[in-house]
Amino acid sequence: MKSRRQEVTDEIEAIFKSGNLVHRVRTFEYLLSGLAPPPSPLQWINPSTLASLSSQESEGPDYYSISVKYSDGRVTTESYYREEGPKPKEIVLTVDEAKYMLQQCLAAIMQEISETKVV
């Protein structure tokens, strides 16, 4: 049986098709923007490098609705879908799950940068 963290990680991976790293990091930055201080891991990466990585993504993410529920009851939601279509299933994450996923995405971006020597 999978742990909850593995289940939600698999759901997120399916939405982003194991890619879309820059988009995904920006999504998690927004979802965690209610923290003090909010995370901003992409500020240390050259914008040209981020643009280059984004342009290498061959396929956009599936439609999604991802929320982070804070311990004080606040909820931040990021959604991506067509207005006239059906709403996607909402995935609700804890702050710790969202932080973990942000760290995983950032690690993948750093690995991609080091492997491709993107400057």
Which features characterize this protein?
alpha+beta, single chain, 3-stranded mixed β-sheet, globular, 4 helices, 119 residues, 3 strands
The share of residues in helices is 40-55%
In DSSP terms (H or I, runs of 4 or more residues), the helix count works out at 4
Average pLDDT metric: 86
Provide the domain count.
1
- Shape verdict: globular
Biggest sheet statistics: 3 strands, mixed
Which structural class best describes the helix and strand composition?
Answer: alpha+beta
Q: Segments where pLDDT lies below 50 for 5+ residues?
A: none
- What is the chain-wise order of helices and strands? HHHEEEH
Strand content: 5-15%
Total E-strand runs = 3
Rg, Å, rounded: 15 Å
For the biggest β-sheet, the strand order reads 2-1-3
What assembly state would you assign to the polypeptide chains in this entry? single chain
| Termini separation | 42 Å
What would your notes on this structure say?
It is a single chain. With 119 residues, the chain is of the alpha+beta class. It has one domain (4-116). It contains four helices and three strands; from the N terminus they run αααβββα. A three-stranded mixed sheet has the order 2-1-3. The longest helix has 22 residues, at 95-116. The relative contact order is 0.21.
Task: Give a concise summary.
Helices cover 46% and strands 14% of the residues.
Please write out the topology.
Elements lengths: L3 H13 L4 H11 L15 H9 L8 E6 L5 E6 L9 E5 H22 L3
Helix pairs in contact: 2-4
